[in-house]
Amino acid sequence: MFIDDALNLTYSYASTICNENEISLVFDEMVAMAGKPEYVAEIKDKTKHSYFETQNMLSKLNEKESIRKSKGVYYTPCDVVHFIVANSIKAAYGKLNQQNIGMEDLSEIPYKSFATKKTVFDPTCGAGEYLLVALEQKLEMLSKHYKKVPVHLVHEAVSTVYGNDINIESIVITKLRLLICVLKHFGAGAIPGLAELMRGNFYSYD
What we know:
Helices cover 57% and strands 4% of the residues. The protein has helices at 2-17, 20-34, 51-59, 65-71, 78-92, 111-116, 129-145, 151-158, 168-186, 194-199, and strands at residues 120-122, 161-164, 202-203. The protein has a 3-stranded parallel sheet with strand order 1-2-3, with helices on one face. Helix 1 (2-17) runs antiparallel to helix 2, helix 3 (51-59) packs antiparallel against helix 9 (168-186) and helix 7 (129-145) runs antiparallel to helix 8. The longest helix has 19 residues, at 168-186. It is globular, with a radius of gyration of 17 Å.
């Protein structure tokens, strides 16, 4: 059920920023990510939600009390995630110090190395909050250095993101959140191929 809800939210957001041909590209990829070829889009809520609203709703889909109790689903607040991710990036490049520990400025980080080479792995990724923030940082770095970021670099950035979670639904939600992130930054032209790209990067081990 949660997967259908996640697909509906993803499709609803995509339909607000894509034309008919573009939405078809997005639909094919999101269905492949979810492993639900039988899925039929059903938008019950006609409200147009922003990117951030959509991401927030996706992050909370399987955080209901019943799921928390049965599967131990607990997630980290967004501001804490941003703090940890920014400092982890700085630490990985030997740039973390007492003066910049509270800052999100990553201007000293070699952008191409981080964006397309440095891998990120969350062994208990949940709904993908850490991985989403890491990918956003990678894509934003590329955008600052290219007038138009080549699709192959976008895909290289996505290919550096790895996750694991015992909850299969969480894995699907994470993938869809990353898809929406790419869609928001670079449009539907960067979407084809993402499902296959992510297929080998996500696991569901206890």
